[in-house]
Amino acid sequence: MDPNQMEQITPANEPEGGLENKTAGAQTPEFEVAKERPEAVAMQETRPAMVKEQPGLIMPAKRKKKPAIPAPARDAITIKVEKILADGLQDSYEKLSPIARQEFKLKGEITATKIRDLLNETKIKAKKIFRLILEWLSLLPGINRFFLEQEAKIKTDKIIELKKRNEEKILP
């Protein structure tokens, strides 16, 4: 074939071996010249590249989007509790790895929701609030246990004070 008169060659029936055994200029019964079959060229242009319909070929499955985790319902009390819990922990939080940060944040949101539920009860159970906060703070690595207990106590006191202020606003 002359390089100036290049003709497109399309596979009519490609054998299982592929094109590696074929030479570029050789015409075999499996290949036809595109001028003789223009519909083959048109059909090839509409197909995605490198997609061949073969009975043994398995196409990759489309990935389904994972459903996003719904955000918990956050009312004003929950937001205030989260602010109290996060107060003074910025340095420790920044030292965590990204995975540990995500886990710590998620556990903190769950803890804030549980504390809100405890605050909605008639009688405040400070010991349960303290344990929840201490359990959450224990996720921080390399911090002294006594410091964690002290922080949990301070945060528990602030949360109880928050509850008392909200009760005073409700009652005339």
Order of helices and strands: EEHHHHHH
Structural domains: how many: 2
From the spread of the alpha carbons, the general shape counts as extended
- How big is the Rg? 34 Å
Give the distance, in angstroms, between the N- and C-terminal Cα atoms. Answer: 100 Å
Number of strands: 2
The secondary structure category is mainly alpha
Beta fraction: under 5%
Number of helices: 6
Could you explain how this protein is built, in words?
- 10% of the residues are buried.
- This protein has 2 domains: 3-46, no CATH class; 76-170, PWI domain (Up-down Bundle).
- Strands 1-2 form a two-stranded antiparallel sheet.
- The protein is mainly alpha-helical and 172 residues long.
- The model is unreliable at 18-23 (pLDDT under 50).
- It is extended.
- The protein has 6 helices and 2 strands.
- The chain has helices at residues 38-46, 76-86, 90-95, 98-120, 126-137, 145-170; strands spanning 9-11, 31-33.
